Design the sequence.
């Protein structure tokens, strides 16, 4: 499939495009799934590095992602443009060549494929995060439950605004918490899958998840 930048791509087309990078340049690109979304779609990550210059895992690495929120489709396109730039520039541009020879890039153009499909449907439905229902079944956190969050805001609309503001503040103040929230809640990954993706232990994921919910609760209550 020809890659252009004047449109947004549905899941099947995005999958074909990403596989195309690996098929054209298997020494530079590898595509693999880091887990399944709530609706069962693979969450694709492209590993970009020159494999003949060393294994990906042995090089310093950088993570790039997009489309955490359902309708943030422009970020997904930015990731595709970045991949296109790497492919076009390797062997021609000295900086790109040195980058891929000595570094590894992990690029996930669409962390939230379910929400993006809703946004790109023939009759679109726009949501902020994942299609995963909330609250969902999980081990309870002492001192925080859905009733607490509901009581922190006067109306449902106020509640949504407070949660949105708190999440944006978390991304600035506690990015490690925000990353776990994005992968667990928005993408529906398990603790084990989050740990593998971020290169941390499952116990660290559990601790960040616990602290993130406690942090959000305090911020929402303080703003109510």
Sequence:
């Amino acid at each position: 499939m020809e890659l252009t930048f004047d449109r947004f791509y549905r899941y099947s087309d995005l999958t074909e495009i990403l596989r195309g990078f690996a098929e054209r340049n298997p020494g530079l690109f590898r595509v693999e799934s880091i887990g399944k979304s709530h609706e069962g779609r693979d969450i694709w990550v492209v590993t970009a590095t020159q494999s003949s210059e060393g294994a990906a895992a042995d090089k310093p690495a950088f993570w790039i992602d997009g489309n955490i929120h359902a309708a943030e489709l422009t970020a997904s396109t930015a990731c595709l443009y970045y991949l296109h730039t790497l492919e076009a520039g390797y062997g021609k541009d000295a900086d790109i060549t040195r980058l891929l020879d000595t570094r590894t890039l992990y690029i996930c153009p669409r962390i939230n494929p379910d929400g993006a499909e809703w946004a790109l449907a023939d009759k679109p439905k726009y949501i902020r995060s994942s299609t995963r229902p909330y609250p969902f079944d999980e081990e309870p956190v002492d001192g925080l439950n859905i009733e607490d969050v509901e009581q922190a805001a006067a109306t449902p609309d106020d509640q949504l605004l407070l949660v949105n503001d708190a999440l944006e503040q978390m991304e600035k103040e506690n990015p490690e918490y925000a990353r776990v929230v994005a992968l667990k809640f928005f993408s529906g990954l398990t603790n084990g899958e989050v740990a593998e993706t971020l290169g941390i232990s499952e116990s660290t994921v559990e601790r960040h998840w616990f602290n993130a919910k406690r942090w959000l609760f305090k911020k929402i209550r303080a703003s109510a």
DSSP finds nine helices and four strands in the chain.
